[in-house]
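cron nightly-structures :: item 1 of 1
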Amino acid sequence: MALKTWFVTGATAGIGRSVTEELLAAGHKVAATARRPEALDDLAGQYPEQLWTMALDVTDTAVLRTVVDRAFAELGRIDVIFSNAGRGAVGAAEELSDAVIDDQIAVNLTAPIHLLRAALPHLRAQGGGRFIQLSTMGSQITTPGASMYHASKWGVEGFMESVIGEVAAFGVGITMVEPGVIRTTFGANLDVAEPLPAYASGPVGQVHQYLATTDNLTANAPGDPQKVAAVIIASADTTPAPRRLALGSDAYNGIKDALNGRLAELEAGREIALSTDF
């Protein structure tokens, strides 16, 4: 495996941290960005020649573009962009505040769009590269109580899939990674809405009740962050770039069931669909 230079957002925790650690241990260079890059000081001390860090809140899209430009200018070539930063919110649609709705769109949808747009001129100029978007099995399935999280992830996949065809001729590949539930701090950092009594006896109420009894719903999840990181890193050497990577048995089974269900619904409406042609 040839050594590469990666650009990673949200590099201080979760999959971003695991990918950064695995890359550095293997000898790659990493431009690691996060809102609090000082959390990477331990890695900076261990890999001073390999690690480049910069403060970045991906929702500040003007700063995001400046940081991307600076990383390419200082590091020369960046082979892989790993768009990892993201957050989750829980609550019924009418429980969610306007601010939480705006945040989910800003972090999970708008930021990756602008990150790709900022990177593309550089990737085209250097003759290609890879853009890896951390998505979720929740981009193909839905659960009550996570409407805005699903909306943002379904949206970012629609954008990425469309752009795949636009940039393939430039040697730029795009991969969407769709993990299931992984043992990270993601569950501990959820933005949980204030419950409304009207939903207490339904599925969202059950979610609220469960969250009230646990500090981190992903603490005992089936997904292994190190194994997930290893697959993400290996995917950068796969040609052509895989369009999607479902990771975890829960992701595979959940996505398969959802797709089969949608195909059955489509087939059930076949005659109606055909009846509307001229």
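cron nightly-structures :: done
The radius of gyration is 20 Å.
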